[in-house]
Structure formats: C-alpha cells, structure tokens
Amino acid sequence: MPEGYDKVTAARYLHDADPHLRAHINAVGPCTLTPTPDTGPHTLFDRLASSILSQQLSVKAAATIAGRLRGRATSDAQLDPALVAALSDEELRACGISRPKVAALRDLADAVRGGRIPTLGELRDYDDDEVISSLTTVRGIGRWTVEMLLIFLLDRPDVFPVADVGVRRGFERVLGLDDKASPAMMLDHSAGWAPYRSVASWYLWRAVDQTGEAAPAPTSSS
Q1: Which candidate in 76, 164, 178, 179 is catalytic?
Q2: Which residues make beta-bridge pairs with 74?
Q3: pLDDT tens digits for 180-210?
Q4: Transmembrane region positions (predicted)?
Q5: Residue 139 forms part of a structural domain
Q6: Which domain holds residue 186?
Q7: Which of 64, 120, 209, 211 has its CA 20 to 30 A from that of 114?
C-alpha cells in the first residue's frame, strides 16, 4: 500500500477538527515527525530486536546492552539475525540479556531467517492490521511494538497506540481530564482525528514532553 503522507496537511486537518488539539498545536508548532529510513537488509530485524532489548529497561541500560550485542552480531551496521542466532545462550547472557529476552531474540531470528514473518518489503503492501497480526506471532513482540514500527518506520498515517502511556497522559492533558482516560474513551474521541491519528499521537507525546515528565513505554505484553 502507498506510504508517506504530508505532515503539514495532517496537522492542519487536526487543527480544524478539534478545538482541544487546535490550542495545543498552536502552542507546539509544526509537526516534525520524521520516519527513520530503511538503511539496509536487516532493518526489520534490527528494529524489532532493539525493541525486545529495551523492554522494561531505562534508556541508558538498554543502550548499554544493545551496544554489547552489536559488538558481536552486526553486519551492514545493523544487527544480523544469522549472527545473533549463531551466538550461544551464554554469549547472549554475557551481553546482559535476560533469559526471556534471549528466547525472544532467538524466536525473532528464526522467524526472519525462516520466512515465518514477512520481509519489510512485503509489509509495505500490508494494511496496518495485517502488519500487526503478522509480527505479533513472534515471542516478545506485542501490539505496541508494532504500532511504533507502523508510525516510525512504515510511515502510516492513522495509528493510535492507546496502550502507550505517553499518548494516554498527553490525551488527558490536552483534553483537560481529571480522571484517567480509558482506551474506549480515547478511541471514541480519536475517531474525529482519523485519518491522521499518527500525527495526533505525536502531538500528544509533546504534551508530556512539555511537562518534563518521563512516560514509560508499555511492556512486551502490551
């Protein structure tokens, strides 16, 4: 399916669609959401493996562990599934990777090498739900992880990750809510933001950034 959409058009649409977002967009300014490029043959594996490694860890700890693994299993400047698969459990554990994450990395490497999940090129022709259902068959890959892939790699315009803590907190701030927003409430209200809920999510993240509050990402079960 076609990728890429105009962020200026999306922001203008959201600005006109919702008075709560309008005030927030005016305060934040232009959307600078820029998808990360497909940089080589292992982009999909690299992104998903990095997501597995970062689950339930601080940014600093995850970067340290990922750096150790990259020192052992990188080709073309990316994590290589064949090189990761060739490492023993002891070598992976020596990088600081927990046993559950070792099992998840092995399942991901097996899925990529064996064609159990689509290639990145094939995923570009899938709709959002098909991408989610395909990739969440891998151990340790949940819906939230794939939604981040849809927004930041596949550049899909209408992704709304209601399980993301930052999106929920931003939603509550922008709408001026005193109580916690439920996923059902968020989905219902966001219907008016379609088909540009990825950009709406970006603006909701900015609402949390402005407070200086760190919003943790969901765990692998999300």
Answers
A1: 164
A2: 79
A3: 999 999 999 999 999 999 999 999 999 998 7
A4: none
A5: yes
A6: 7-35+157-210
A7: 64
Q: Quick one: pLDDT band at residue 39, thresholds 50, 70, 90?
A: confident
Dihedral pair phi/psi, residue 103, rounded to 5°: -65, -40
- My answer on whether 48 and 145 are in the same domain is yes
Residue 8: Cβ-neighbour burial (10 angstroms; 0-12, 13-18, 19+): exposed
47-84 pLDDT, tens per residue?
999 999 999 899 999 999 999 999 999 998 999 999 99
> Residues with Cβ < 8 Å from 87, sequence gap 6 or more?
72, 73
Annotation says 209 is catalytic: no
User: Can you give the CATH number for the domain in which 197 is found?
Assistant: 1.10.1670.40
Are 174 and 135 found together in one domain?
Answer: no
